């Protein structure tokens, strides 16, 4: 079996492959673009990459013998996971291998930013002796704001506290108990953080919620002289707005390891600012981190090719083929239930209870629970969330996950129920299958019976049960060319309150939602995206 190593990987990882007599190991001496990579993958059983080589749909299609792609790192942005899944190719990554290296880089950047070390070094190398130009600031007694307290953010917080810093953190998914254990002050709103920090560091995934989060409006609310760090994902800090804030002097300095466009363009104006420290995406660039991820990816790929064991996979649960076919329909339903409950409930949750009933009691619960968590935590973890890392991500947020096998008799022979708890609030949804496992349905929503097809866009609302209400909503949506695919209606009594759920072909435009919200007979209007 041919193992094609496409990017530089630790020699220790390569050596593990070379120890196996059944493997033919080929190490490419440079990164190949798609057109050059396609001809050399035809007989490859495994591809090993870091972040440079792009494993596109065309590359996967050109590799009929390909069984696994291994990413020596956390993200899989450079791998077309959907195309791999369609061709039956397992995609693996190495979660956790660069946690310490990225946290240490962040803290090193913060110290360099505070004391202007790179600038002073450059001055000395130029033959100068200019002490007055490089007066810095101490970290002691300063306030550090951390956006995101996952694995890396938590490690940065520990180091900051050891240096005598006050740590404020914004993470809408972190539990209060977890924040207390980390000895950080958790803020509920970003506006509660902006005005108080001397340093701000980003450790959140890239998502619709975090893209451009640190922008001109945020800078305007910060102290003059604040310093900004980003070693997480390019694009979370708006570079155009950061440039303007640096040029005006409102932001005293910035240290960046990631960028909106990588490599950073040679003509980027950030390169010319003396108060900016730039590094070329070095978060995982330590010998220890590279050894860790190289060995981990080699071991995972070897286990899969030799024994069929699956671990660290982002597109397949750790199951044998026969069991996977039994569990597969539940994985889809579970992900939709998790996504639904997450969008209907609070961001910060203390406990998630997943209940298996009827024939679902016979399932291996771990992959199904992971599918629920993946859907539930997508907003918190973005594209980095997968079945491999969801349990550690939940633990990092302080989210208690409970699995319950119920003997309760219901109208359904098999069912799955997900409930999220925060303080005294509870949001829940339950699902089953109609006719066959090809027809999943959501049949309970906060305890009320419904019949919802779990796909696409859902419009949920409580309304007064009066004649013409359904027609009114339908006409309004139709006027704006929003098509209704199906509808579920449940009322407590005639003339009382009703729960209406519509499956839509598209997200309603803002004016439609505003008009519906202004209707005195409509309340709790919500839009949920299940796809």
Describe this structure in words.
With 531 residues, the chain is α/β, with parallel strands linked by helices. It has four domains: 2-96 and 288-312, 3-Layer(aba) Sandwich (Rossmann fold); 99-278, 3-Layer(aba) Sandwich (Rossmann fold); 317-454, 60s Ribosomal Protein L30, Chain: A (2-Layer Sandwich), CATH 3.30.1330.90; 455-531, 2-Layer Sandwich (Alpha-Beta Plaits), CATH 3.30.70.260. The protein has helices at residues 11-18, 34-37, 57-61, 81-86, 99-115, 117-125, 151-162, 176-182, 191-194, 216-221, 239-248, 287-307, 321-344, 365-381, 390-397, 469-479, 510-517; strands at 2-5, 24-27, 44-49, 68-71, 90-92, 143-147, 166-170, 185-186, 199-202, 226-230, 251-256, 276-278, 351-358, 400-406, 414-422, 425-433, 440-445, 448-452, 457-464, 484-491, 497-504, 522-529. The strands form four sheets. The chain has a seven-stranded parallel beta sheet with strand order 8-7-6-9-10-11-12. The longest helix has 24 residues, at 321-344. The model has no long low-confidence stretch (mean pLDDT 92).
